[in-house]
Write a structure and sequence with these properties.
InterPro entries: Cyt_P450, Cyt_P450_B, Cyt_P450_CS, Cyt_P450_sf. By secondary structure, the chain is an alpha+beta fold. It is 46% helix and 11% strand. The protein has helices at residues 3-7, 35-44, 65-72, 87-90, 105-113, 118-123, 125-139, 147-152, 155-164, 171-182, 189-214, 222-227, 238-252, 255-267, 271-279, 284-294, 326-329, 363-380; strands spanning 50-53, 59-62, 78-79, 144-146, 230-231, 234-235, 299-304, 308-310, 313-315, 320-324, 385-386, 393-395, 401-403, 406-408. Strands 1-2-10-7-3 form a five-stranded mixed beta sheet. A hairpin with a 5-residue loop joins strand 12 and strand 13 (401-403). The longest helix has 26 residues, at 189-214.
Length: 409
């Protein structure tokens, strides 16, 4: 296959011509105006609920919230064996249990949940709060901050490295590995597959000696708990253990940072919303769920397990379906006035943490980190704004990144 054919996959015969859109998930048109705005253009264009793009190896995209949720909750028809696009890159992804389907994945997911269940996370709250306070108080009297550099790029990383009992000085290289997987470099599926494979192997190389050192240990950190767990009454195979420990690192180092960036950029432009939270601090915990609905940033995928029909089109076994979470929480068919942040919204519907058997294991930690950050920030900085003339820069991928959030007060 030529490089041109790799970049632009010919339309398969079973894909109707009126379902084709030119969309690159790593650089969607209009992203300079906003990551969420770029994705929701698929809805404002009034496209069908299932479209197909020839870019990134050729794949389907679910454009409506109801269908996105349906696919997440249907592992019998939509497999997690490959969850990254392009498929050539996703096939290099070797982390478990996120690439497993039920029932195989269940005992592995139980292991992951040991250190991330609600009770375990609540026990971490004092330490999480202490990290937030220390970071905020370092710049609160200064009257301004680069939020990414001085808070969001530090806070969730410090929390995670504490929970994993890893040295903070290792975090830059681990974040680079994570970016190599969620936003792999390359112009063709083959090049992106090579980049993702290098990042995946870098994680494995990093965690291998950690597994050896903590095997048989009695530590309570999330890595030691996983390393010394059994699956179906037996120790985990080495390759699966490498995949599980690596997944914990990947999941803990990227997503919350960028979600906080989106959230604080929005609040810095909407003083009425800040005032609402400041005047009603008991509403913060409920309001956090609305913020997760409003600022989704994951675009994972599923592989068609066998031929199936959805939205009037036939999906062939082995094809990929992209599930941009932005197109669930911001779908006006699912949430009324979806662009409005409504802290009183009842049961905000979204897939920000995914849905179904692979719903994000780290959701309790993400909720705690966001809640604690807002509580401690608003105690010390009750009014703030985005520095005039500045704005964030967005990068799309499996997990979007947001840079350049500068605040003053």
């Amino acid at each position: 296959m030529s490089a041109a054919e790799e970049i632009h996959t010919p339309r398969p015969a079973h894909v109707p011509a009126d379902r084709v859109v030119e969309l690159d998930m790593y650089n969607p048109q209009g992203i300079e105006k906003g990551y969420l705005e770029a994705w929701t253009s698929l809805q404002t264009a009034d496209l069908p609920s299932m479209v197909w793009t020839p870019l990134n190896g050729g794949h389907w995209i679910a454009t409506r919230g109801e269908l996105i949720q349906d696919i997440y909750c249907d592992p019998d028809h939509f497999s997690s064996h490959v969850i990254f696009i392009p498929k050539a890159a996703g096939e290099k992804y070797a982390m478990v249990p996120s690439k497993m389907d039920p029932p195989e994945h269940r005992p592995y997911r139980e292991v992951v949940d040991k250190g991330l269940n609600l009770r375990a996370i609540r026990e971490r709250e004092p330490a999480v709060r202490a990290h937030a306070i220390a970071l905020i108080e370092a710049f609160a009297d200064k009257g301004h901050c680069d939020f990414v550099e001085e808070f969001s790029g530090e806070f969730p990383i410090r929390v995670f490295m504490m929970m994993a009992d890893l040295p903070m000085e290792d975090s830059p290289k681990l974040r680079a590995f994570a970016a190599g997987m969620t936003r792999p470099e390359g112009n063709t599926p083959t090049e992106m597959a090579d980049a993702l494979d290098r990042a995946n192997r870098s994680f494995f190389d990093y965690v291998s000696p950690i597994i050896d050192a903590r095997m048989g240990g009695d530590g309570t950190d999330i890595l030691t708990l996983s390393i010394n767990s059994q699956v179906n009454g037996a120790p985990m195979e080495r390759e699966k253990l490498l995949g599980m420990v690596s997944l914990l690192l990947l999941a803990g180092l990227d997503t919350v940072t960028n979600f906080l960036n989106m959230t604080m950029d929005y609040l810095g432009r909407h003083p009425d919303k800040v005032r609402e939270l400041t005047e009603n601090p008991t509403e913060i915990r409920r309001g956090v769920e609305e913020l997760f609905r409003r600022f989704p940033l994951v675009a994972a995928a599923r592989m068609v397990a066998h031929d199936v029909e959805r939205d009037g089109v036939e999906l062939k076994q082995g094809e990929m379906v992209l599930l941009p979470t932005a197109l669930h929480g911001l779908d006006p068919r699912v949430n009324a006035d979806p662009w409005e942040v409504d802290f009183q919204r009842k049961r905000p519907a979204h897939s920000t943490f995914g849905n179904g058997p692979h719903r994000c294991a780290g959701l309790h930690l993400a909720r705690l980190e966001t809640t604690v950050m807002l509580e401690e920030w608003l105690k010390r900085i009750p009014t703030f704004r985005v520095v005039p003339g500045t704005g964030p820069t967005y990068h799309s991928g499996v997990v979007a990144s947001v840079d350049g959030v500068r605040l003053e007060w």
